[in-house]
Structure formats: structure tokens, C-alpha cells
Amino acid sequence: MTEPPQPGLISPRQRAYTLGVLVLVFTSSHVDRQIVGILGQAIKESLQISDTQLGVLSGIMFAVFYATLGMPMAMWADRGNRRNIITLSVALWSAMTVACGLAQSYAQMLLARIGVGVGEAGSNPPSHSIIADLYAPHERATAMSVFALGVNVGIMLGYLIGGWVNEWLDWRWAFIVAGVPGLLIAAVVRFTVREPPRGYVEQRTAQVQAPPFLAVLRTMTASPILRQVVLGGTLAAFAGYALVIWVPVYLVRVHQMGTGAAGSTLALLVGLGGGFGTFMAGWLADRLARRSEGWRAWVVTVALATAMPLAIVAFLQQGTLATILWFVLPAMLVGAYIGPGFAIVQSYIPLEMRAVAAAINLFIVNIVGLGLGPFTVGLISDQLAASQGVDSLRYGLLAMALVLGWSALHYLRLGVLLQRQAKSG
After folding, report:
1. Which residue pairs, CB below 8 angstroms and at least 24 apart, start in 170-173?
2. What global pTM score does this model have?
3. Is 50 left (phi over 0), alpha (psi -120 to 50) or beta?
4. What is the pLDDT of residues 277-318, one digit of tens each?
5. What is the CA radius of gyration of the chain?
6. Dihedral sign of CA atoms 398, 399, 401, 402 in order
């Protein structure tokens, strides 16, 4: 059983440092996960594969292992040392990213990407659990949005490293350059981060042992709030992951941009712009919720409902500049669900269930979102290629824009449920 927390045990500086290191970890995971997007066309040509195979490589096979193994890793995290689990995970996915650069066939590449997914399975649930122990509910969405910046910073670095190293050397070296720094990050986690007491911020500890998996699953499925979080986040991730993987391929293939130019452009839009939008969504959710609890979700509703029509217009454009300009706001807003969604899960689940609850959420989000989103776009593109040529990819991306609107409806409902829960006490 965890020892009762002691006042002053964790200083504000240490708390901020821990969050910063976890952001670094999350950044590394998204560099290694999303670099396939900017390298997609080069990999397709080098390994002579179809868009559907590229969708499998970037999405479904990675997601199956990442999401499935997240369950046992999360159960371990609710019982063991979360810092050490994160250390092991970072080292594994970084080594497997390097292995991607050494792959000589599609099968070898697929196995290496599965290895990346296996490594990343052990990172997010314990990270969510640690953050929930360090930040109180009224500031948790902001903290989770800071953590979520790792998505956008990782995508930005992945686009830049992948785009330019591919042009200067080749796509294989891009994977090696992306993977090696993660081994250093693993050492930073192991030797500089302290494991916080469970329930520290609430000044209480779990008085029972971590419950079995099915008990956590029953708790989540019985909650209308958590059901809407999972549904809304899954749909947003379905569209978001597909856009991250396929928009760079679209710019290279349809608009004839070089990988360096496409990577730099999307690094600004999705990396910097998306990072700003992701952080602001969490920050606004925490502050507007002081007036009305429903705004924890309605911030996401507004963001996704705004992104949908603008993304549709962007993918209907024929000119490169017009496409990029119309895509600016969707790139900023599509990740708005991440911080508020993570925070709501951690705030509406008992503390002894936090890591497993995060893993269940991530399992569904990633199997459907990360797994099927990129795959679906590739499948649509291949099915329409005979009649539409290179424009076939455009229709897959337009379908993803419509999914953003569907997700917004779930966050609208979620806000109503949060408001009702707050009033009932």
C-alpha cells in the first residue's frame, strides 16, 4: 500500500519538471509514430507498396499492438513503478524506430513498426496516472493539454526530420536520426524523475488494491460521461490521425511539393499552430468550467465544428497555396479534444483505476482512430484511383473532415452530461 502523502513532499518545481519530462517522452513517441507520414511517398516508391499497404504500415498494425498491450502495461502501472515502466517503453520504441531505417522489405518494416507500437504501449497510461497524482481536478485539463503538446511538437519534429533528412540523405536515415535521441530520454526519465505517491494531490491514497480489469471496464461503461468521452475522442482521433499521416502525402503527390517544403509547412501548421490550439483548448476548458462545467466539453465542440467546413474547403482547392491557407485553422483545432478528454477520464474514475482507465480509453481511441483512420483513407484512395488518378486521395481526406463534425456532436452531448452531473452534486 502506498504511504500517505506528506505535505511539501513534492515541490512546485519538481512537479513542473516531471510534467516537462513527460512532455518530452510524449514528444519522442509522436516523432517516431508520425514520421511515416512525411516519408510515406518515399517508402511507397522504395518498397513498391500500395496506399492500402501504406495505411496498414502507418496505422492498423501499429495500433493493434500499441492499444492491446496498453492494457497489461496499464495494470502493471497501477501496481508497480510507473517511472520505470516509462523508461523501458521509451528505450524499446526508440530502438525499433532505428530498426525501421534498417528494414529491407515491407515485412521487415511492418515488424519494426509493430515493435514501435509495443514500446509505446507502456508510456501513456502511467504518464496520465502520474499527472493526475500531481495536478488537482481544477487544473488537470491545463496540465493534460501541456502534456498533449507532445503530440504537436512530435509531429512538427517528425515532419522536419523526415522531410529534410529524406532530401539530404534518404528515408532510412530519417528513421535513425529520429530514433536515437529517445535512448537518451529513457535515461533522463530513469535517473531524474521521482515516482509520486498515488493520490498525492487529493491528499489521500488508494485504500484498496488496484481492481481487476473487468471492474474498471464496468465502471467506465456504466458512466454516460466516460462513454461520451471515449466515443467523441475515438472519432476525433479517427480523422486526426488520418490527416496527420495523409496530408503530407497529399501535398507531395497531388501538389508536387518536396518532402522538405511539405514537412516545413506542416511543421508550422500542425506543430506550432496545432500545439497552440491543443494547449488553449485545455486552458479554456479549465477556466470556462468555473462558470459552467459543460464547457469542459463544449470547448472541443466549438473547435471541431469550426474545423470541419474549413477542412472540406481546403481539400476542394486546386491550388497549393489555397489548400494550405484553408487548412491553417483545421490544423490548429483538430487536436483540441486531447487535453480535456484525458482530464475528464482521470477526474471521473477512482484513483486506483486511473492507469487502466486511461489504457481502455486509449485502446478504443487508437484501435479505431490510429488503426482504422489512416487505413480507411488509403483504402478509399486505392478504390478510386482507377477513375480519379492522383485526386483519389482527395476524397479520402474529405471523408475525414466529415468525421470531425460527427465527433463534435458527441462533445456537445458530453457537455450536457457534465453540466447535469455538476448540478446534481
Report:
1. 170/42, 171/39, 171/42, 171/43, 171/46, 171/101, 172/101, 172/102, 173/101
2. 0.73
3. beta
4. 988 988 898 889 888 889 999 999 999 999 999 999 999 999
5. 20
6. positive
